[in-house]
Amino acid sequence: MTEFVAWAKMAFQSKHEYSPVEVDETFKATQGTEKRSSQRNFMFILVVAATAILSSMVTSLVTMHYYGPTISQFSSSPEIQTSTQSPMAVTPKYSCGNSSTEALALGCVFDPLSVNWIHTECSHYGIEEFKEITDPRPNMKFPFWRDKAGTTRIPDEHALSLSDEFHTTQAWHLSHCAYIILRLHDGYLRGARIDSNTNEFIHTQHCLEMFVELILKDEEKDVINTTGNVGFMTC
């Protein structure tokens, strides 16, 4: 985890080509070879980790942790918007209602990693690690806006928790995806309850498609720089 966070911190110091929000020229640093390499390594780590996690857990998660369908939270990929309920879905035990007032009354708290209200009985794994990779640029420490043009900022976490719609950067979105997948795997290992959005197969699929799309555009994607060993596993 420490190595992952270190890579993430290095990646955030460079310009994010896919950010939908304009960043002041003051904060656009010249991209050196080392920083570009760090960013590419960061993205490759995300994809490799996510793929390994999924291959070992998807079948068990479908039977153990599915708590019903929701609407896909982020819309970078327009074709991924809704999900289909699993035939093994069970009735949720904990709910957060439909408003912040109801959520608080039902024992829920705002989760900045998933940007949802989640019951305290559900996993909140990864929040502190996720916060450690905050973009160091002063105007990007909390990259949330009320409009896609980036003219009206959401000032803090409390204001975000009371918001309906928000807009953020590609960098934040990718980091969210990486840590949500880690939360999912941690919940699988510990048998913890997972919130209905994190537990959506289609949400994980959406995140992986973002990782793969970014890697396919990488200039060094065909460089032979990875060594592996064939293993013999149990299941």
Please describe what this structure looks like:
The protein starts with a helix and ends in a 19-residue tail after the last helix. With 235 residues, the chain is mainly α. Residues 1-31, 55-72 and 77-90 have low confidence and may be disordered. The chain contains 7 helices and 4 strands, in the order αααββαβαβαα. Strands 1-2 form a two-stranded antiparallel ribbon. A two-stranded antiparallel sheet has the order 3-4. α1 (2-12) packs across α2 and α6 (170-190) crosses α7 (201-216).
For the record, the count of structural domains works out to: 1
Distance between the termini: 24 Å
| Order of the strands making up the biggest sheet | 1-2
Helicity range = 40-55%
Which sequence of SSEs, written as H and E, runs from N to C?
Answer: HHHEEHEHEHH
What coarse outline follows from CA principal-axis ratios?
flat
Largest sheet: 2 strands, antiparallel
InterPro entries: Phomopsin_biosynth_assoc (IPR053008)
Keywords: Membrane, Transmembrane, Transmembrane helix
Please outline what is shown here.
InterPro entries: Phomopsin_biosynth_assoc. This protein is mainly alpha-helical and 235 residues long.
Provide keyphrases for this structure:
two-stranded antiparallel sheet, disordered N terminus, 41% helix, 5% strand
Fold blueprint:
Blueprint: H1 2-12, H2 33-64, H3 100-105, E1 108-111, E2 116-119, H4 127-132, E3 144-145, H5 157-161, E4 167-168, H6 170-190, H7 201-216
Antiparallel strand pairs: 1-2, 3-4
Helix pairs in contact: 1-2, 2-6, 2-7, 6-7
